[in-house]
Amino acid sequence: MSDFPPLNRTVPDLADVLASARVVALPLATRFRGIEEREALLLEGENGWAEFSPFVEYDDDESATWLRAAIEFAWGDLPTPLRQNIPVNATVPAVHVDRVASILGRFDGCRTAKVKVAERGQTLVEDIARVRAVRDEMGPEGRIRVDANGGWNVDEAEHAIHALAEFDLEYVEQPCETVPELVEIRRRTKYMGVPIAADESVRKAADPLAVADAGAADILVLKAQPLGGIRRSLDIIADAGLPVVVSSALDTSVGLSMGAWLASAVPELEYDCGLGTASLLSADVTDDPLRAVNGSIDVRRVVPSPRLLDGYAASAARRDWWLERLRRCYALL
Ligand SMILES: O=C(O)CCC(=O)c1ccccc1C(=O)O
Ligand SMILES: [Mg+2]
């Protein structure tokens, strides 16, 4: 078990957490995870702005962990950055093959692309066409990884990885849902030389180290918000002893700035990070979004623009829902 670091002297009163809270609903450039609008609560502490944005269907226990992360980033002690910019991947949602080129075109200079596969209601034929289009766009030097979000059973995963191997995959993220399935698919596909990465098995598990302990993955995908913050993520990285990819959850540029800070403090960063997703939004909270330029994003604090916070403010009903959620999660800390 990997314990949460203490929320030390820096835990603000609820009133201080609520004082600066703003709720936004940002339109996506392309449907992702079944949503067309991303809601997020932003708040400002002594360090600057932070984001609290668990997906709306998450329960309070899971969401409270995301709140720990926001409070740490706004008020807590943060590690010293070891690097000033972070190479990121382009993210290609489970779109029709015709849309691949225009989506890749939103990501400036990214040498790596992550392609969503195994989407419910789609077929392997569609996945293969999408990955082939990405390979055609990126050329032979491009790095391509796929993310199945646990959508395959072990036999489906074996078949799919075999079919996709011709596109020279950097790794397959969460091919199956459970840790025992990951152990099995890793055993079955080892001969193909395609590494297995774990995402949900880290961020949604009671014990984020269980996947590493079980030998179920070659790479860990780490997200600062769902793991409870930067320091806890760094503890997990140190204990797991596996290479990591720092990623995000379709955050605003404020949330991405926390991911970039985590990535900046990881001792060794050998893979491009999943922190380029500001390019999937058609609006953001700042006039200077944390989008890839020449394949990298900066490590810096992001200050929302009052004009954009107003312009993309969520409805009063949705704002109240988020403030209530924040209160309930705070009570669980
Ligand atoms: O890693 C990336 O390229 C972007 C982040 C991403 O894919 C994602 C975004 C929101 C929710 C889940 C996921 C995921 O990695 O499964
Ligand atoms: Mg993933």
TrEMBL record:
Function: Converts 2-succinyl-6-hydroxy-2,4-cyclohexadiene-1-carboxylate (SHCHC) to 2-succinylbenzoate (OSB).
Signal peptide (residue range): none
GO biological process: one example: amino acid catabolic process
Co-factor(s): a divalent metal cation
InterPro entries: Enolase-like_C_sf, Enolase_C-like, Mandel_Rmase/mucon_lact_enz_CS, Mandelate_racemase_C, OSB_synthase_MenC1
Family: Belongs to the mandelate racemase/muconate lactonizing enzyme family. MenC type 1 subfamily.
Catalytic reaction(s) noted: (1R,6R)-6-hydroxy-2-succinyl-cyclohexa-2,4-diene-1-carboxylate = 2-succinylbenzoate + H2O
Transmembrane segments: none
Keywords tagged on the record: Lyase, Magnesium, Menaquinone biosynthesis, Metal-binding
Active site (catalytic residues): K116, K223
Protein known as: o-succinylbenzoate synthase
Domain Mandelate racemase/muconate lactonizing enzyme C-terminal positions: 97-192
Residues at which Mg(2+) binds: D147, E173, D199
